[in-house]
Amino acid sequence: MDSTWMTTAVAVGGTLLGSGLTALVAARTERRKDESLRRQQLRQEAVDDRTRRRDLRVEHRKWRRDSRQAAYQNLMDAAHEAHGAIWQLARLTSDPYDRPRYDTRRGIAIDAVRATRQAAHRVQLEGPTPVAQAASDWAEAVDRHIHPPVEYLRELGEGPPSDERKDRYRSAAAETGLLVETMRRRFVPLAREALDEVMGEAADDTTAGPAAPGVPAGDRAARASGMRDSET
Question: Distance between CA atoms of 75 and 66, rounded to whole angstroms?
């Protein structure tokens, strides 16, 4: 009977021990599973965060391009209007002096030049520096271009000008007109380059996509740029 009791005790003990070991293994397995899921969740959250930040950068750069393009276009339109207004004013130099017409066209031209300067000031805010400087120089050239006809017509109101004065006016008007065109030709390619650069940065972010674990963003951008270069 003692042996039967001992056998039973051993069996029960073995069963309990086996159950305990099984429970311990199951608990460790479950814990490892939970830790793995947690790490996976953290990695996914990091990827989602990088994706959100990338999308924000892309949207910001698109907004920046649209804002710059609007400022650049506004300057070009204002300068075009000013050039036309100055041309209309200059046409009076070949007509008999008419003070009311002169005052009207001079006022229109001055307002147009002022609008060009204001448009250039907005470009100063948008940048970048080379475009801002070119915009300022262009507006300054437009401002200078109005002075020859204004001064000549003012003198014309005081009496017929001499041939020498006419020649000086034509020379000054031609010089300032050429300067305006030179500044326009300088501004346009710089503005186009600035817009393309902003969109190129946005394309880098879009092409690179969300960062894979262990791959720096700079490496991804370089790879994306290399792929575009190889395609071209």
Answer: 14
